[in-house]
Amino acid sequence: MLHDFRYAAPRTAPELLDLLEGEGAMMLAGGTDLLPNVRNGVFKPRLVVDVKKLPDSDRIAFGAEGLEFGPAVTLNDVLRSKDAREKYPALCACVHELASHQVRNRATVVGNVMNASPCSDTAPALLCLGARAIVRSKTGARELPFDHFFAGPKKTRLEKGEFLEKVIVPASSAGAKGRYLKLKRINGHDLGIVGVLMLEKDGALSFAVSSAAPTPVLVTGLRKGVAPDEAAAKVLAACSPITDVRATKEYREFMIGVYVRRLLSEGV
Amino acid sequence: MLSDKRPSELELVGKSPERSDDVEKLTGSATYVSDMSLPGMLHAQLKKSPHARARIVRIDTAKARAMPGVRAIVTGDELDYRLGLYVVDKRILARGEVRHYGEAVAAVAADTLMQAKAAADAIEVEYEVLKPILHHMDALKPDAPLVHPELGSYAYMAAAFTPQPGTNVANLTKLRKGDTELGFAASEWIVEREYSCPSVQHVPMETHVAIAKWERGDRVTVWTSAQSPFTVRNLMCIAFKLPHNNVRVHIPYVGGGFGGKAGIGVEPLVAVLSRAAGGKPVKFQATREEEFSLLPCRSALTYRLKTGVSTEGKILAQEMTLYWDSGAYADYAVNVTRASGYSASGPYEIPNAKVDSYTIYTNKPYGTAYRGFGHVEFHWALERHMELVAQAIGMDPVEFRRKNALRPGSKTLTGEVITEHTGNVLKCIDKAAEAIGYGRITPAEAEREKKTGWKIGKGVAALQKAPAMPSYTATAVFLKMNEDGTVTVNLALTDYGQGTYTSIRQIVAERLGFPLDKVKVSFECDTDKDPYDWQTVASKGLLMSGNAAILAAEDLLKNAYDTAARALRAQECDLAHDGEKVYLKHHPSKAVRFSAMAVGLALENGNGIGGPIVGVGRYIAQGLTFLDKETGEGNPALDWTYGAHGMTVEVNPDTGEYRVLKIASVYDVGKAINPEIVRGQAIGGMMQGLGTATCEGYIYDKDGRLLNPSFTDNKIPTAKDLPLEIETYVVETPQVDGPYGARGMAEHSMISVAAALGNAIQKASGAEIMHMPIRFEDVWRALNARESIDNWITKSPTGHCRSAPVQKN
Amino acid sequence: MRILVKVNGDTYEREVAENRTLLRFLREDLGITGPKEGCGMGECGACTVFLNGRAVNSCMVLAVEADGATVDTVEGESKGPELSEIQKAFERNHAVQCGFCTPGMVMSVKELLRDNAKPSVDEIKEAVEGNFCRCTGYAQIVEAVLDLTGRASEKGGIGHVE
């Protein structure tokens, strides 16, 4: 049972931008965050703006700039994309860790980052891969790199009247190998206690950590062969986990260090 | 043993025919109460307390009453009823005071769910918030506020329970056997430790749901997702002072219960709403969140064990003190307390024993029956304790268990003498140990350890349980022969997934000598049409209803033979039958078909004889007694089902992460009527046990608000959580009075899974875990000698020793 | 809002509130009650149906989103009196207990087998990971799929201790 709202499915970007200006307008892509939040009374939208009828919103393609995909591209669309699988295995590894198969059939990468949860599983990949968001408003489009995208728990740096039109994962990151370790309470689908992605590209290492700070954490500037303890210390310095129902702060900190060292010793 | 055949002659019993409810369930046509809608039906929503304990100062429903579609609103002030299975302490809606987070204080019935929700939101409640009593050990302190100051005025079942007015103790069950002081004095070793586990949820996939219609003349009809139609009817009639034939309870398909739907739930609430709405049917279905906090859970337990052991490793004395967290109401928790009291030592002989088992009120959602009825919780403690005692005295834990296990001639805590028919726990322990290669690491396992750096450990835990039920529990089964000679079975034992109907069908067909497809067990239970059954609980259904079904089949055959004898002008002793007909043994061609007799036989001249062929079987538990209130002496057990699990785990000794590599479970089921159903119960219960062992449990904040009332933070196992290898075995020591030798086993599979896991983890890593669930962090904390905490929010300490755990006399 | 949706091959044109979920639309407006609500939050999978050929949690889909779409539920799984092969395999392998998760479970298995004729045990577990079952403990469900893909020999059984 959901709170009462209106629904619109605009077919052009200007139409969508008009609707977004309305009081209480919220975007709907896969609905897997929006609708449970509406059900739980967390969100009370007056208008739900479905992005899926927008031309090319479900397009995923690899081009000169890299892998580009629209706001209606689902997690399983990413996993089914040959380009994504072959050129961005780290993205696929992270996407695959998110929720269950049915949810991945609906949930989108864009919706996941727009939700801006500290435990987002797609954010680590987008951060490490240097991806950027193309954000459109009535005044035009701007680029927002993901390392400047998250403002806090459940908060992005998008302004009112903007929407995330496209994600570009740069061509320069193609071929980078990565591995994502996610600590969960069960083997089945679960929100992470912590998650650590290590990405390796031409000897450079980067780490991204989920569920470890108010926003997903990115640590760059490490080289292959770095001492594991040094790497762990550097990653931990960027994290500030909390105690909640899933784990204590101290165990989260400990496991982040373990995962960094494990990734370094086992490799990608 | 109720059987007319040698085991080798059985044709249907012992086979695994498909379940009789498959087609409906697989095609989506099985109708659950969730799926039902009646003409003119209203929808109910509740106003619930956001506080764990508060005085209700004022409830204002005026605004809500004026809202569109609202047909009825009720509050606790209008409902002068108390309900309770054993201690009558619960109101339909809170009155005067709320006693737990999520408790209902007002209810609305409206034309649509949305309207009901809007109206419930519009009800204004003013509370005076009081300091809640959240931990059951705190509730025992002399200055603790009382959850039920009026406890002394409540009605209760005096033959079984002993409330302590003026305290928070809803029941104290005591048991004394031998002389523990002498036993401890003679002991070489004394080991004393304390273990604990939190409240957990049953998580039936279908939440509680009921529809009720309270019509003119106080005729009440209920459709409910429940386990026990006659208990729902009985308690409603007592509460509302209605004649039993005024109330009719229907139970169609039920989406799981596990004990959570054993008693009475939301039925009285929808009934009073229907009455207030002038007789229109009213439906209420709990949301998943309401399932966690409005409806009952499994009680938390703190279990303190003190064990005296001889030089040879024989237990000489044991003191067992169980502190059960009942939550706000006594419900089944008092009976869990009682059952766990007389069973607290598990499948071991304790010559000198003292048990004190307390049910303690707190300001939390209340505890009820849950698969295992207390045995999952106390076996967690007991079977960890047996491991730690063995370790303390330097004996192998399996050898220690074998040495102390019940065997023919042993006396249970209540003085019952075990015979060779009771079941064989030694065989269960031995097989579980053998199946996992207990006590050694194979070369392949050693290789795996080397590769992963994780340590492999193996543990065994044993278990026992008898049905917890009144000593005079009874049931009945009706058989009706249809015009074509097929048979329909009616009973009020419900099949909410456990498969009993399929087994009953096999039993009836076996005893009748009919092919399986001639027998149908009718699925919807209806108190107006089905014969009485006490409750579908306690793993007593197969034994008791199975026996009643055999007796009903014999009665049906007797009626058919009587008609046939007259038709064939023969004596009954000269007759035999097959699936089609009754015939003269000596002249098989002289026969009369069942179809000809089914609804009365017409002779050649048109005279009618016989009449419709039916069979009635009644069964009542035999030889059980009340227990002495001071010593616990008596005979509480319909049967004892024994079992054991062997578990292999690998543990990361640095991080506490672990994986279950293998579990082997063994049960002495007497006779596996349908081995695949037995296996389904074995694995299903084991996984449920693994869920509560690894990740499930209620987490409250310091004000008593439940922080994890949904699947977001209260995970249950998924398919990915299956152990890599699962083996299931049965021992078949026939139950003397069981149908074809069978006894129940559906709860048992959940018992001792957690302890086997704890034992294996300790073997692998040395982590000494005293509290479940065993989360990775718990293992890590134990390995690093960090304080064990059950709740990371309120940081309540738990499961530690109160004294030096091992003492040598 | 007025929507046109094809469910199990039948076309329905209905006026539907914009905040109505697909699950409630199917169950309450069309009387298609195979899909169940177990949590309303997309965690348990009891509401799993196909939306344009993909398994989704219908409790997290708006009915209006299904305008012009094809929806398949367990009710459309078997045509005629015979059970489908998936349903028969569930039946043979005792993969059903209370049955409340079954309609969603069958749909998840259906999508798996459409994309992957010989899934491994891990792939089977992953395909039904989003379908909670509190009764069976999943083993007999996994075995039903193994049986269906010609690997009945990998099934477990019950051992009798002499």
Give the tags.
heterotrimer, A: 268 residues, alpha+beta, Uridine Diphospho-n-acetylenolpyruvylglucosamine Reductase, domain 2, Uridine Diphospho-n-acetylenolpyruvylglucosamine Reductase, domain 3, Enolase-like, domain 1, five-stranded antiparallel sheet, four-stranded antiparallel sheet, 14 strands, B: 809 residues, Aldehyde Oxidoreductase, domain 4, Aldehyde Oxidoreductase, domain 3, 3 domains, eight-stranded mixed sheet, six-stranded mixed sheet, 19 helices
What does this structure look like?
The complex is a heterotrimer of chains A (268), B (809) and C (162). Chain A is α+β, with helices and mostly antiparallel strands and 268 residues long. In chain A, 30% of the residues lie in helices and 27% in strands. Chain A contains ten helices and 14 strands. In chain A, helix 5 packs antiparallel against helix 8 (122-128) and helix 9 (228-237) packs antiparallel against helix 10 (249-266). The termini of chain A are far apart. The mean pLDDT of chain A is 97. Chain B has 809 residues and is an alpha+beta fold. Chain B has three domains: 7-30 and 473-620, 2-Layer Sandwich (Aldehyde Oxidoreductase, domain 4), CATH 3.30.365; 33-132 and 208-285, Aldehyde Oxidoreductase, domain 3; 300-469 and 625-808, Aldehyde oxidase/xanthine dehydrogenase, molybdopterin binding domain (Aldehyde Oxidoreductase, domain 4). Chain B has an eight-stranded mixed β-sheet. In chain B, strands 7-15-14-13-8-30 form a six-stranded mixed β-sheet. In chain B, strands 16-27-28-29 form a four-stranded mixed β-sheet, with helices on both faces. The longest helix of chain B is centred in the C-terminal third of the chain and has 28 residues, at 541-568. Chain B is globular. In chain C, helix 2 crosses helix 5 (139-148). The model of chain C has no long low-confidence stretch (mean pLDDT 97). Chain C folds into two domains: 2-76, Roll (Ubiquitin-like (UB roll)), CATH 3.10.20.30; 85-154, DNA polymerase, domain 1. Chain C is 29% helix and 17% strand. Chain C is built from five helices and six strands. Chains in contact: A-B, A-C, B-C. Chains B and C meet through helix 1, helix 12, helix 17 and strand 29 of B and helix 2, helix 3, helix 4, helix 5 and strand 6 of C. Strand 29 of chain B pairs parallel with strand 6 of chain C.
Major beta sheet summary of chain A: 5 strands, antiparallel
> What order do the SSEs of chain A take from the amino end to the carboxyl end, as H and E?
EHEHEEEHHHHHHEEEEEEEEEHH
CATH topology of the largest domain in chain A: Uridine Diphospho-n-acetylenolpyruvylglucosamine Reductase, domain 3
Outline type of chain B:
globular
How many runs of DSSP E, i.e. beta strands of chain B? Answer: 30
Beta-sheet strand percentage of chain B?
15-25%
- Based on secondary structure, the structural category of chain B is alpha+beta
| Average pLDDT taken over every residue of chain A | 97
The chain pair with the largest interface is: B-C, 70 and 60 residues
> Got a strand count of chain A?
14
CATH architecture of the largest domain in chain B: 2-Layer Sandwich
* Binned strand content of chain A: 25-35%
Helix content of chain B: 25-40%
Q: Walk across the major sheet of chain B and give the strand order.
A: 3-5-1-12-9-10-11-20
Mean pLDDT of chain B: 96
Main sheet properties of chain B: 8 strands, mixed
Q: What is the quaternary state of this protein?
A: heterotrimer
CATH hierarchy, class of the largest domain in chain B: Alpha Beta
Low-confidence stretches of chain A: none
